[in-house]
């Protein structure tokens, strides 16, 4: 399974031209199920509320577009939430830390642009 972080999810839905060719190839191959997390929708909702600019859509729109695109929605499990406590504090963003924990507990390959997440697991794929 491939799990998109929030940046990759937004680019996939609203700016696919920004996706690297290697990621497009992995997605188009159809060998892996493609998923997005409730964490990303939550992150967009929070950042929209505090007036973070640059978001192309609301949390509702992102969720609707992701479902319409056939992406699998991953809920946040208690196991993933508890796993956050086992992660070293290499990175302090709570959304990213929960996405890493979710990838590790599913398991799934987390595709991200955030190079600082690579230290957590071989499941993190930098694009």
Key words describing this protein structure:
13% strand; 6 helices; Rossmann fold; alpha/beta; single chain; 127 residues; 5 strands; 5-stranded parallel β-sheet
Question: What does the model show?
Answer:
This protein is α/β, with parallel strands linked by helices and 127 residues long. The protein has six helices and five strands; from the N terminus they run E-H-H-E-H-H-E-H-H-E-E. It has helices at 6-14, 21-28, 38-49, 59-68, 78-83, 94-105; strands spanning 2-4, 34-37, 72-74, 109-112, 124-126. The longest helix has 12 residues, at 38-49. The two termini are 16 Å apart. The model has no long low-confidence stretch (mean pLDDT 93).
Quick description:
By secondary structure, this protein is of the alpha/beta class. 45% of the residues lie in helices and 13% in strands.
Topology:
Layout: E1 2-4, H1 6-14, H2 21-28, E2 34-37, H3 38-49, H4 59-68, E3 72-74, H5 78-83, H6 94-105, E4 109-112, E5 124-126
Parallel strand pairs: 1-2, 1-4, 2-3, 4-5
Helix pairs in contact: 3-4
Task: Write down the overall mean pLDDT.
Answer: 93
The count of β-strands is 5
Helix % is 40-55%
The number of distinct helices, counting runs of at least 4 residues, comes to 6
Radius of gyration: 14 Å
**Sheet with the most strands: spatial strand order:** 3-2-1-4-5
CATH topology: Rossmann fold
**How many domain regions?**
1
User: From N to C, what is the helix and strand string?
Assistant: EHHEHHEHHEE
- The amount of beta strand, in percent, is 5-15%
Terminal-residue CA separation: 16 Å
Outline the biggest β-sheet.
5 strands, parallel
Assign the structural class, choosing from mainly alpha, mainly beta, alpha/beta, alpha+beta, or little secondary structure: alpha/beta
What is the CATH homologous superfamily assignment? 5'-nuclease
- CATH domain class: Alpha Beta
- Unreliable residue runs: none
Which CATH architecture would you pick?
3-Layer(aba) Sandwich
Shape: globular
